[in-house]
């Protein structure tokens, strides 16, 4: 093990990185009683944080109980061998350290990187000029949708804006795309939250909408000039041919003349014009039929010059067209960004994706960033797990903090340390800013962020899988790694796939190559594989099906459930998969849109489940739904309109008896309803808006120890292991992307002040120029690495058995294509001499019988649904302190406060009913108290001397804060204004008191200072009778 202060662990799958990290961590905390306070361990997920904490605490506990070397854990022995502790000292010391950690648990700092940055930002919010009590937004989709809606909502207000949006919609229609611009804006808006784009978007801040339009018009003009120019050149080419005394038929299939004719006819598509060998033939001078004699020798060179000049111009036109296709969404990115900022300021929100950018802004170019300076010397030892998933910005933000610990010394002269653990072959989060290259550059010493040299330690052995699985993966990746275009990536795949086997002998790998890429075939083969596993003694919970695309998981889950195979997948856990949940959502919709027959139909369809004649039942009750629900089920829909969504749905669940025992989907749904109510309000429309935007993705968390086959994506499976892994649809296109974009640096003068523009990444970009070709190539290499990494992650999850289901995909010549996973598998089988074109099944090792049976909980605990019962007459929310003691004084205080609240909700006498309802909803009064309190309030608002102040002729300020000259605030109960005249009214209960005069006079003085003439100053004493005190 390394003794360097800066150590990098290259930890391939299953190589015991948690063990290695735990060992170093334990050595540090055992060395000194305060050391555990000085360690910051950062990892990627909350699950990994909990595992790490459990590992450390459990190890200390086990060490403390160790009484003999025979029963000692391997970690205990390793620490004993690598330190100076004696066998007697280590258990006692471990017990002491465990006690110290548990008594100071808050200082036991193992955290995710997001949690650490959040804590940092929250602590220094004031210095960073952000609200102290900001809300963290984890789900940015809703935020983005609101911003896009606001941007589109500006259409009609700003003429320039309106024209841009209209032109964009029309342009989309002309291109045979949907006119819905919201979809495009949402798609491009996602760039704002992608850390990879932060630096690019920064350069847009100073650019206005008009600048984009100028560039668009400039490029359109340039495009027209190019079209005119290439038409002239193409015409010149045809003239050159005819002037040379040649006929167009002298050219094979007239291909060359036709090429120029297409251009003259207005065909500028590079894919249609240059997907041939014309240029090669021109270079070789082979352009005419062999029968043509005495052709001019200089014709081919002359035509080649024309051809290449035209080609260059056509691709330049292609670049301009590419820019223009993106320019409107690109221009509106700025507008979306501004709206996002406004929304977040309004709601005191901060999205989690902004954390790193905020810190980067403060840390950049500061030798001692103040936010770290104020953390002081708190941390001296740093552990970063899953380093390949740490984004560039996250790493750059941590460098000054870690550098200070490693390059300086504490008061005892000790330096700090850094332990990085990662595996570039498992970097599958590039879309979130994770970069494998970052790890590779540190590991190969290409970058040196600290003055302290680093030491690379490769963990050699795989402790997870059985021998056959390890050997298969080693041989497979050794065989296919040469296809990686980047030599550094290639080298790391070769080095990283030489894992040593452990003591687990045996294991099994099976490759099935299907005759065609067919969903049914994949489902049948997957089903047959599961049945084969069950026959060998494996349980359903031993098996995990890992897929790359969610849609494949949905198809497989559906097919397997039809064959009674129990399945748990992210889709089966969706709330929207529950019929009861959909029934409740439709019930709310029905109350918002009572005349909508389609909604009524869906509700009746759910209720007709056990009816003999479903159609007759639905037909009879359609358009008479509310009466039917009341008469048959006792469900009064009007009650839902008077309560919050949560209370209304609780009433519906109870009335329709939707949860006779227990239902995880409904319980999770009600939790969601409660959360939405807290954040967005308790009205129905707010909930429906949220459900329409996010309901499709809301789900319950995966239950553990459930006897089912798991289906998950490769990203979800990372860091996990399963006895049996099935990998169907193992035939992805390595270079497949959905609407990829590229940032292109451009000449500021040529592009009217723009230094960067956004374009679609497509094949033709390679022909735009050298810079463009280089950028395309680098992006292409990264895409290839990501595809190889996904393949590596999925193939290394298996412990005992791995089943790969791919396709026998060959072209007409019988060749495989290594741009597909299937091509890589076929290449590997050919390289070991096993492949035969008509052989579809290949296996390595023997499929072992499963001896160890897992104990499953066949009778899981059923937790009944707890109903709220707020309808009891004696049920009352203790909303005020006065209600906690049943004493006369407190009753009086409470009643006074309630009347105050009701009068504060009344502007005119017509508001009385609404104010009473509000007090009832808030639990301030009971149903049986309504009439009594209403009579008291009526005495005030209909009092012969006061009623004029509750009419509609006045402007009313109820409970409105007044800012005084000395900075203090006052809050009069009611101020009535008209034509620069003011009347001050203050409500009191109990005895008359002269001190109240002083208070009301102060209110009056404030309004007098504002230029109002004070007509009346009235104190209204509300007791058994109403008394007025005029001041």
What do you see in this structure?
The protein has 1031 residues and is α/β, with parallel strands linked by helices. Strands 11-12-10-13-16-9-17 form a 7-stranded mixed sheet, with helices on both faces. Strands 3-2-6-7-1-8 form a 6-stranded parallel sheet, sandwiched between helices. The chain has a 5-stranded mixed sheet with strand order 18-21-22-23-24. It contains 37 helices and 24 strands. It is globular, with a radius of gyration of 37 Å. Mean pLDDT is 88; it is low at 879-889.
Compact summary:
The chain has 37 helices and 24 strands. The protein is an alpha/beta fold. Strands 11-12-10-13-16-9-17 form a seven-stranded mixed beta sheet, with helices on both faces. It has a six-stranded parallel beta sheet with strand order 3-2-6-7-1-8, with helices on both faces. Strands 18-21-22-23-24 form a five-stranded mixed beta sheet.
